[in-house]
Amino acid sequence: MATSSDYRLGEYDFPRGWFMIGESAEASSTPSAIRYFGQDLVLYRGQSGQPYVVEAYCPHMGAHLAKNTTSYIVRDGEQVEGESIRCPFHGWRYGPDGQCNHIPYSDFVPKAAKLKSFPVIERAGILWLWHDPEGLEPDFDLPDFGGHWDQPGWVHWKVDYMGDLDIHPIEVVDNMADYGHFVPIHGAKDFVYFANEFKDHVVHQYYAAGHRTLTLNPEDVLTLDTWYAGPSILQSEMEGAFNSFIMITHTPIEDGKIRVWHGLMVQVNDGSAPITDDLRAAALEYQEGSRLAFAQDVEIWQNKRACLNPLVVPNDGPYGKVRLWYKQFYNPRDQAPDAHKRTNGLYVTLDKRKSSAAA
Ligand code: FES
Ligand SMILES: [Fe+2]
Description:
Layout: E1 17-23, E2 32-36, E3 39-45, E4 51-55, H1 72-75, E5 80-81, E6 84-86, E7 93-94, E8 100-102, E9 117-118, E10 120-123, E11 126-131, E12 154-155, E13 160-165, H2 169-173, H3 182-186, E14 188-199, E15 202-211, E16 222-229, E17 233-239, E18 243-254, E19 257-267, H4 277-303, H5 319-327, H6 336-343, E20 345-351
Antiparallel strand pairs: 1-11, 2-3, 3-4, 4-9, 5-6, 6-7, 7-8, 10-11, 12-19, 13-19, 14-15, 14-20, 15-16, 16-17, 17-18, 18-19
The site of FE2/S2 (inorganic) cluster has 10 residues, from loops.
């Protein structure tokens, strides 16, 4: 398992950014144990409905806040009170900011009785956590997924869990620059255009090519704008048989190990007619096609060895630029502006458009 330091990414083992930690249904008033970023964490939903994540171990004497079934605090359903969570061992209670706000048998509450807590946003049926090695507030927004989640005529994704992979996330992000894998892995043909654009914390992949199966007519060109906003959330607007929106996301569990998910929202009508069961089924079938295409990348990742330095040829995409861009999330945020200066810009790997049509 190659780690962040093996790839020389920077000061931190885990990146700064927004990360999926589960689906909405996984947060409830019964706290649950989760593990990401090499840390044991606890997820719970406050009485307002807001989900929270705090570190798992109580600063009093180290009990796990979620792994208990027999304490009377658990049996009596007193684990979550308002927005706070109560430890099953001696009943100390912590607010969503992590600060202890009640000890059942003491008026004195030490300042040090504080759990690490993380910002959490629920969006598009998914729980997203802000992870920052510096412990600061988010310096970029969680994506809005094209706004399609709330748009009439769009069928929501059903999140596909793609597996826990023994691979560093950098090798998944490499895909942004990976011009050469589209023909063998994804069945692309007759490439017209392939480029990457780096804009601060965002990297785009602009793609135009034919496709063996995804286009309606053999001569049609599939045009994709795919981008990472931050280190872990890929989005793609796709025009094909249906308009659709891809989400691929991965979260470090340990340094060098990730959990990966996929989803596809599909537009089945313009919103003026109801979404029938048949349309919903067609959308889910379309999502399944997208999942299978992504599973082709996943199969490679599941079985490859780590690639610390790609052996590149001139017509490969700009792996080096993507990796340089990716490093910004593993280093203090005050270094990000310099990192942006080094990577921002457009890198064209291939352009076969007629010069009149070229932008
Ligand atoms: S260990 Fe949590 S209250 Fe004592
Ligand atoms: Fe791919």
